[in-house]
TrEMBL record:
Keyword terms, alphabetized: Transferase
Erythromycin biosynthesis protein CIII-like C-terminal domain mapped to chain residues: 301-418
Species name: Singulisphaera acidiphila (strain ATCC BAA-1392 / DSM 18658 / VKM B-2454 / MOB10)
Cross-referenced Pfam families: EryCIII-like_C, Glyco_transf_28
GO molecular function, one term: UDP-glycosyltransferase activity
Lineage of the organism: Bacteria, Pseudomonadati, Planctomycetota, Planctomycetia, Isosphaerales
Protein name: Glycosyl transferase, UDP-glucuronosyltransferase
One of the protein's GO biological processes: vancomycin biosynthetic process
């Protein structure tokens, strides 16, 4: 903030309260993509600002329930929700990321640009998620000050701390070969995916903007401030991160007031030892396949209590009645449930991973696609988790992995240590300080 800002008493001085600013937060995707932006919005409100979340109509009710202003921006994810079969392609390990970009975001890029340009009318700052592809275009075309944000390490494509691409999980064996090896590989990867974002270059040309080398990576980074909204425990700052990167830690939000733990869940948790929690987040749950049936069998083999968060897809309902030691629910707030679990089995989305890390519980990660394989590798590297490929998730393998997690004190102790580190961070507050600094120099 500017050193000479007016204080509450109307006098200029150091450390003054910044004036209220209108700040548009643009994001797209699952709850793991939305919740950090809700966390930022609530913190900005607490600091006296006026946040507006610009995203799909699909998320309107969740946002407005928090007393946060909403502005609809296409694409409308309601269209995807109506086609559950499409999630199989969206979550495919090899082609899922390409499908998301080329079949969801690129066809509506011009509409997204028009909507977001209207959303920032009269605003003081734009904050955009890396997949809000219209964000950089709107910032350049309008001149509005702009802050970008990334949620997981794979978005930074570091040569010093290389990520594990979903298409080639065996790549983790080559991570230690160093920047001389990974630099050329990352250059090749950037060229390979450049065709996915060709519509961005075409729209830039129509708008009279200069082309960018890489709309998916560097081209999506603000030149003045980039928020790195994940904890140092899964990714330390690297020499090849952009100099404007500000690592804040995770920005947590869970809608506990509207979707808190039910009386049934509270009673279940109080009736016995901590259960294993099985969940697939808010995207992979739409393509669960046999995950829940195999999870139930694994829990039975271990003679452990279990909770299954199965979502709204009727295909995920467990076929046989559950014993009293098990409970299936559509959803429960992770921030309340995870700390009361013995272990957490999940898909590796960054939002679910962050909540499991904060809870301080060991985890078994079964990645579907996108950043999930890389997140799985990173929590395994931390010593708090094990991982199984989706096609290797059998009853026997799941039970064996969980037995190691639950019976060996090393994972439990380490998970508790990491949980304390994550809980000591305040990602939303740190991010809002960076946002206010960006406003002060704009």
């Amino acid at each position: 903030m500017h050193p000479k800002e007016r204080t509450k008493d109307g006098e200029e001085g150091l450390g003054a309260v910044p004036p209220a600013r209108r700040i548009v937060l643009a994001t797209f995707g699952s709850l793991g993509d939305l919740h950090p932006f809700i966390a930022l919005a609530k913190e900005l409100q607490a600091r006296g600002h006026i946040p507006i979340i610009a995203t799909s109509e699909f998320h309107r009710e969740r946002i407005e329930r928090q007393g946060i202003a909403f502005f609809p921006v296409r694409p409308d994810l309601l269209d995807i929700e109506a086609k559950p079969e499409f999630f199989r392609d969206l979550m495919d390990r090899k082609k899922g990321s390409e499908v998301v970009i080329r079949q969801v975001f690129m066809p509506s890029l011009r509409a997204s640009y028009d909507d977001l340009r209207e959303a920032v009318r009269g605003a003081d700052l734009l904050v955009s998620h890396v997949v809000a592809f219209a964000g950089p275009l709107v910032a350049e075309a309008t001149g509005i000050p702009w802050v970008s944000a990334v949620l997981s390490p794979i978005s930074l494509l570091s040569n010093h701390d290389p990520s594990v691409p979903p298409q080639v999980p065996w790549f983790r064996h080559f991570r230690r070969l160093g920047p001389r090896f990974h630099g050329p590989l990352h250059s090749f990867a950037r060229r390979a995916v450049r065709k996915w974002t060709e519509p961005v270059q075409q729209l830039r040309s129509e708008l009279g903007l200069r082309p960018v080398a890489d709309p998916l990576f560097e081209g999506g980074n603000s030149p003045t401030c980039m928020l790195v909204l994940f904890s140092r425990v899964i990714g330390e700052p690297q020499p090849d991160w952009p100099p404007q990167a500000v690592q804040t830690g995770f920005a947590f939000f869970d809608d506990v007031h509207a979707t808190g733990m039910t009386a049934e869940l509270k009673q279940f948790l109080s009736a016995g030892p901590p259960p294993i929690v099985f969940t697939l987040g808010s995207s992979a749950v739409m393509d669960a396949g046999t995950f829940y049936e195999r999870s139930r069998a694994a829990a039975e083999q271990l003679d452990r209590r279990a909770i299954f968060l199965i979502g709204i897809d009727p295909r995920n309902r467990l076929r046989e009645p559950l014993p009293k030691s098990m409970l299936a629910l559509e959803y429960a707030p992770h921030s309340e449930l995870f700390p009361r679990a013995s272990a957490i089995v999940h898909q590796g989305g960054v939002g679910t991973t962050a909540q499991a890390l904060r809870a301080g519980r060991p985890m078994l990660v079964v990645p579907w696609g996108h950043d999930q394989l890389d997140n799985a590798y990173r929590v395994c590297r931390l010593g708090v988790a094990r991982t199984l490929a989706r096609d290797k998730y059998t009853v026997r393998r799941a039970a064996t992995a969980l037995r190691h997690l639950l019976d060996e004190p090393t994972h439990i102790t380490r998970a508790s240590e990491v949980g304390r580190l994550v809980r000591a961070e305040n990602g939303a507050a740190s991010a809002c300080l960076a946002i206010e600094r960006a406003l002060a120099v704009s």
